[in-house]
Amino acid sequence: MSTKLSVNINKIATLRNSRGGNNPDVVKAAVDVQHFGADGVTVHPRPDERHIRYNDVREIKKIITTEFNIEGNCSEQKFVDLVLETRPHQVTLVPDVLGQLTSDHGWNTITHKDYLTDMIQVFKNAGIRVSIFVDPDPEMVIGAAATGTDRIELYTEQYARQFADGQQKQAIAPYVAAAEKARELGIGLNAGHDLDLHNLAYFAQNIPWLDEVSIGHALITDALYYGLQNTVQLYKRLLVPAPKY
Ligand SMILES: CC(=O)[C@@H](O)[C@H](O)COP(=O)(O)O
Ligand SMILES: NCC(=O)COP(=O)(O)O
Q1: For residue 1, what pLDDT band results from cuts at 50, 70 and 90?
Q2: 214: CA distance to ligand 2 center in Å?
Q3: Alpha helix (H) ranges present in the chain?
Q4: Pocket of ligand 2 contains residue 192 by CB under 6 Å
Q5: Which option is the CATH number for 4-238: 3.40.30.10, 3.40.50.150, 3.20.20.70, 3.40.50.300?
Q6: Would you say 86 is a known binding-site residue?
Q7: Ligand 1 site, residue 133, Cβ cutoff 6 A
Q8: How many Å lie between the centroid of ligand 1 and the Cα of residue 72?
Q9: Complex prediction ipTM
Q10: pLDDT tens for residues 147-188?
């Protein structure tokens, strides 16, 4: 089974918002990435709606034929209400603070165990699969499993930085340890943040039980050069397991 690719289309909304109007059309982009081979669409609405707007999420839900993943901070009631209204296949809970440039840390699943347990139940009761964003630390994975989450998403910025510095083995080691712990505890595994055409294959090959990656910033940047259709296919190709002879 190959790892699924969910395309994060936040950056398409950033471009649209820079001029007002509806160019590029975010809903059309969601339709197209699925048509081009993506296994899902990810959005991360933030309270200031600087990229994906809450209403985009409603419109995208109407056209989704693959998997819809909504990421965000469940301490915002508006976010919780949106997720319960639109009922995506998956919600990914990310502990961002207000005005944060982008996500930069995972949950402390031990300190916030009771809070996460309660919130996860709210979404699970609505039939929505839950993933929580965590740093690559086996202790945090153990804490995550105790909350009842279905999956974790490993925050991969640190991996991407070390990989770019040529430290591939050091970069992947904590992620393999965290991923092994998740597998041992029976929780599903996603990953994302700063994954790109250079670092993705090594990550996926070292953690072949990885369920899904969500990729936005680098993929949309690559699409400026290669086009969206080619780019989705380039990323998909990196997720196909190497044949065993
Ligand atoms: C959780 C995560 O790593 C991504 O959702 C990333 O934060 C995208 O959000 P922005 O597009 O706002 O940077
Ligand atoms: N969950 C990670 C995501 O959706 C995209 O992150 P990035 O590729 O924009 O860094």
Answers
A1: confident
A2: 6
A3: 10-17, 26-35, 54-63, 77-86, 113-125, 138-147, 157-164, 168-185, 200-206, 217-226, 228-238
A4: yes
A5: 3.20.20.70
A6: no
A7: yes
A8: 9
A9: 0.96
A10: 999 999 999 999 999 999 999 999 999 999 999 999 999 999
